[in-house]
């Protein structure tokens, strides 16, 4: 007879073998056979009843875990000099996990009794379960700066790149981190602020050449004035925050809500769950739950945290880093819906009919515990028949019902017809040194579309609820295109042999008909780009003018309060309108709501510009080693000084200067968006296929300069003498070119028709 293991032995084995947790795996590990399996089953049931294990399908696992960002108490070094730490907010009922702290060379010294905020990684070692990397000590908030290091005989100085910085910073010899003269470095304040002399700093990261990849996003952050360090008062408030309890909330901890995000996501705003509706009055219907992190519970109006969140307006995302709207203690820990950790949320239960129309909804302030933190690709793989250890146990009861509800929502979407632009999003992949490894286009999976549809539905529910309760709120507004932009789009469509109807109230279905007619043709990208350019920019406002692009009458941002201040405002409005507590909208906030809307619309645009500049610089650095190579692309912009080309391979934008187009004068027609050669009659217009040679790539500015080789597979003709405007004959040549341009345009339109 084989020996039945103790409960402690079973728990230890499961902890060491997280992927082998079925009853069969456990029996095999301990050599349990025959009738002894009955005793093993009894032990597992007892462990489950005691809360040590949680059964998922036919496997067992620890239901509680530490969040990826946690507060730890550092212990005294052991005999080997290793630092271990105790998690201060362990929610589990089992054995407390052991955390090993792995200090970096640039980290300040840690000692027994230090409370730290750290990023954790799960490991399965003999003497510890997690490894921790320091974010910062609790109670400290050293100022960070970016600058050029200047070597001195002893130590050196840092010259900040921020022009508004008041002075240079001194660096002691033992705090240079090996930095060389002229390197771009990131440093933090060392020691208390003194009244006399230069402030002191400790270098925490060497970024090398100021034009090097790791410096790109930091320079953009400073150039665009994006705040990247938190005030002491805000950090202090975040550090004092504690996990929320169940009191006054609906208990959703047993509901298998899951988060689905990119594989590199550090915070999780939203979780979802769906099941078939058991209401006999709604045959074929679905119930969808969307739970959103309850940031309003932690960020109260008028606090230092609130002032800083409003100032930033939103998080800013770059290929190598994120500048968060909230400190790590909140964005990466207490407000993030991590797997297996109780977290406060505002949840909405939405009832759909068989065609995906929302027929009812209600909001709850709740406490949840995510059943799993999954990423898009693994969820899609599970639905496509290749589940892994994480998605397999959830496939039938959680993932498939989500896709069933999404199938109904697709039907409703097809009837509503939001704008369906086909413009792939590029993704820059960096290596560990920050160098661009590859540039590709993001794959669009049904898993992405599923989450998007659920979030849109929840945003609609929030707007409708606040309208019904007559509560002040911020709408996400997207107005219809102006008549002038529509006329320009009609001209572009007409020149391509397509039609956009006139004389009727424009709806997104009319634009979709145009896009569908262009699909699969050489003009598809031209029509998509031109349609996008005809759109107005979305913004936040207190007046409800609807969302044209989504074809929705009522829309507000509710689903991302960790990274958008607008969503936090909507959460507070829901709190006030439902009478959930005193952390809702206050009168002072309501009074300045219009001002807030304008401000956060501006910060959104600021982040977009910084992110775009960073992407341009990374692409220029990536292509700088390929100067002289030929590329295919399409013209996506025309200006008096040249033509802009989007390269097919990377999506990078480059300029073909008008001075490089041959020995002839080019007439610029702003209304038609064309350049036309006065001698050859060559017309350069948006949407044309081209072959270009890369002649210059400047990573510092992100600029690419191109030489035009072919247009629509035809070699570029060369004109005769070039006579710029203002010289003898210049005006006559311009007038002649204009008449010729108008004539050729009419011929092109007739030919296309």
UniProtKB/TrEMBL annotation:
It comes from the Bacteria. SUPFAM superfamilies: Nucleic acid-binding proteins. It catalyses: Exonucleolytic cleavage in the 3'- to 5'-direction to yield nucleoside 5'-phosphates. Residues 717-726 have a biased composition (Low complexity). SMART domains: RNB (SM00955), S1 (SM00316). Its EC number is 3.1.13.1. It comes from Parasedimentitalea denitrificans. Keywords: Cytoplasm, Exonuclease, Hydrolase, Nuclease, RNA-binding. This is Ribonuclease R. 3'-5' exoribonuclease that releases 5'-nucleoside monophosphates and is involved in maturation of structured RNAs. Belongs to the RNR ribonuclease family. RNase R subfamily. It is found in: Cytoplasm. Residues 713-753 are annotated as: Disordered. Pfam families: CSD2 (PF17876), RNB (PF00773), S1 (PF00575). The keyword Cell membrane does not apply.
């Amino acid at each position: 007879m084989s020996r039945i293991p103790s409960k402690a032995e079973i728990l230890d084995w499961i902890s060491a073998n997280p992927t082998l947790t079925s009853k069969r795996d456990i029996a095999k590990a301990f050599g349990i056979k025959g009738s002894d399996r009955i005793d093993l089953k009894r032990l597992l049931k007892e462990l489950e009843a005691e809360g040590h294990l949680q059964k998922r399908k036919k496997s067992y696992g620890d239901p509680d875990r530490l969040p990826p960002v946690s507060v730890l108490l550092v212990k005294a070094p052991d005999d080997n000099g290793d630092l271990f730490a105790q998690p201060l907010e362990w929610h589990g009922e089992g054995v407390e996990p052991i955390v090993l702290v792995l200090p970096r060379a640039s980290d300040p010294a840690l000692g027994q009794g230090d409370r730290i905020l750290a990023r954790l990684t799960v490991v399965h070692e003999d003497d510890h379960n997690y490894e921790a990397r320091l974010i910062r000590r609790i109670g400290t908030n050293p100022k960070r700066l970016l600058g050029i290091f200047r070597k001195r005989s002893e130590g050196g100085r840092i010259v900040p790149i921020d022009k508004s910085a008041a002075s240079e910073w001194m660096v002691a010899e033992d705090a240079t981190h090996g930095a060389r003269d002229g390197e771009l470095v990131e440093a933090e304040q060392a020691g208390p602020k003194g009244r006399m002399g230069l402030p002191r700093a400790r270098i925490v990261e060497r970024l090398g050449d100021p034009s090097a990849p790791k410096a790109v996003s930091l320079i953009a952050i400073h150039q665009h004035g994006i705040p990247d360090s938190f005030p002491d008062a805000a950090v202090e408030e975040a550090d004092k925050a504690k996990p929320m309890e169940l009191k006054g909330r609906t208990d959703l901890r047993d509901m298998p809500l899951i988060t689905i995000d990119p594989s590199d996501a550090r915070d999780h705003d939203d979780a979802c769950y769906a099941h078939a509706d058991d209401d006999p009055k709604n045959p074929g219907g679905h119930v969808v739950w969307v739970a959103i992190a309850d940031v309003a519970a932690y960020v109260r109006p008028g606090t230092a945290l609130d002032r800083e969140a409003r100032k930033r307006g939103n998080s800013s995302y770059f290929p190598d880093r994120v500048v968060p709207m909230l400190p790590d203690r909140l964005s990466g820990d207490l407000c993030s819906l991590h797997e297996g950790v109780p977290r406060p949320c505002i949840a909405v239960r939405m009832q759909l009919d068989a065609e995906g129309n929302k027929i009812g909804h209600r909001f709850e302030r709740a406490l949840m515990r995510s059943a799993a933190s999954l990423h898009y690709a693994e969820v899609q793989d599970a639905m496509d028949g290749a589940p892994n250890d994480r998605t397999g146990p959830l496939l039938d009861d959680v993932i498939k019902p989500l896709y069933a509800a999404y199938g109904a929502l697709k039907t409703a979407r097809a009837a509503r017809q939001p704008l369906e632009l086909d413009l792939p999003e590029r993704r820059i992949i960096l290596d560990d040194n920050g160098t661009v490894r590859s540039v590709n286009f993001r794959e669009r999976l049904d898993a992405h579309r599923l989450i998007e549809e659920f979030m849109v539905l929840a945003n609609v529910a929030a707007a409708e609820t606040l309208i019904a309760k007559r509560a002040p709120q911020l709408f996400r507004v997207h107005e219809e295109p102006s008549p002038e932009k529509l006329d320009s789009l009609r001209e572009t469509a007409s020149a391509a042999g397509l039609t956009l109807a006139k004389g009727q109230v424009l709806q997104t279905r009319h634009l979709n008909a145009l896009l569908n007619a262009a699909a699969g043709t050489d003009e598809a990208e031209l029509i998509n780009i031109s349609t996008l350019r005809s759109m107005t920019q979305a913004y936040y406002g207190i007046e409800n003018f609807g969302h044209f692009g989504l074809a929705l009458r009522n829309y507000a941002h509710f689903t991302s309060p960790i990274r958008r201040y607008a969503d936090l405002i909507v959460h507070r409005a829901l709190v006030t309108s439902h009478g959930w507590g005193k952390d809702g909208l206050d009168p002072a906030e309501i009074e300045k709501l219009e001002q807030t809307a304008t401000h956060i619309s501006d910060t959104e645009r600021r982040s977009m510009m910084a992110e775009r500049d960073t992407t341009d610089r990374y692409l220029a650095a990536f292509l700088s080693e390929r100067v002289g190579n030929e590329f295919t692309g399409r013209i996506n912009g025309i200006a008096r000084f040249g033509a802009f080309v989007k390269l097919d391979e990377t999506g990078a934008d480059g300029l073909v200067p008008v001075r490089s187009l041959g020995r002839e004068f080019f007439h610029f027609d702003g209304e038609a968006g064309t350049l036309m050669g006065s001698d050859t009659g060559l017309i350069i217009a948006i949407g044309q296929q081209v072959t270009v040679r890369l002649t210059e790539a400047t990573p510092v500015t992100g600029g690419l300069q191109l030489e035009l080789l072919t247009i629509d597979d035809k070699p570029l003709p060369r004109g005769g003498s070039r006579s710029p405007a203002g010289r003898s004959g210049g005006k006559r040549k311009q007038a002649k070119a204009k008449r010729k341009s108008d004539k050729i345009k009419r011929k092109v339109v007739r030919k296309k028709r």
